[in-house]
Design goal:
single chain; alpha/beta; 5 strands; 65% helix; elongated
Length: 364
Amino acid sequence: MRSPALRHVLTHLITPLLMCIGMGLAYMGAFVAPEPHHLPVAVVGSAPQAKVFAQTVKDTAGDKLDVRTVATRADAVHLLKSRDVTGAYVPSAKAPELLVASAASDMGATAVEKVFTPVAAKEGVPLKVTDVAEPVADDPTGQGLFFLLIALSIGSYASVAALGAAGAALSMRVRALLTLGVSAVVGSIGALLAGPVFHLAHHDLEGVWGMAWLYSAGILFIGVGLHTFLKRWTTLTMMVLFVMLNFTSSGGLFRPELQNGFFGTLHAFWNGAGFVEGARSLLYFGDDGLARNVWTLGVWLLVGLVVTGIAALYERPRQARLAVGHPGTATEPAAPPAAAPTEREAARAAEEEVEEEVEETVGV
């Protein structure tokens, strides 16, 4: 290709086009056609009739439902609040009841209601739906935590360009300290949004801030470390890791039982799921499962620290050369005046590359 300017433009178009493909595959694959896959539900009752009814529901639904029986309604409520089941049906000839916990997943509660409403209709009686764990009135669908996750993610991965590209002249130690500071700021913004601004968290706001900081710090340290090796391709990598795979597997809109096996598997260990499920545990489910989700966020932060440490070791020789100067530079004659513009042009080109990367990152 003869035109350097045209080649430069076409090269920079690769990233947004790959993002277009990736976002389409990820979001449409995860959200367009949600279907139950081994959705866990319970039937309340210890009599033989309850077991027969549960088996009938299982046979009718096939792989869509995993049906168990529990002896009492209290047992069913316990399973719902520990998020071991998505719904529990209490059979009755006069007043059948469906127990759900919409704070765990509004879409999941809707799915089990669609399953059991026709069952009650066959008996000619209305189905009573009881929500044992409702989200706060300020977040009636319970999806506010998912949108908070999006805000935290954008603040984190967009900051990688500033820390990794614009801060490339700084030592890795300084960049690491800045990363800690930026993650604390991002966590504080998240806490403000969750608390005083949109009132998603009516209690334990400090815990929400702690998880937001852990989540943000993990992303930032991974990004800053990867930037040493990937340079301008860091943006695409961060989008794949913390948008395409992260948002879709977080459980913020659909829990894994309503998604295909790929996203359901990611939900078990991806950091977005750790934040969303951890925040739900803290705010709605009495800390049940909180420790495991905090550990998930902690492991991602540890990975980020390891990646950043490897990047620091990789950069150390270059930093040492910059500190002492290149051998022989003291005895070499001064560069002729004509070389000065070339150096300025090189510096300007480097600055423009950094600005392009920052604009590209923030733009997406």
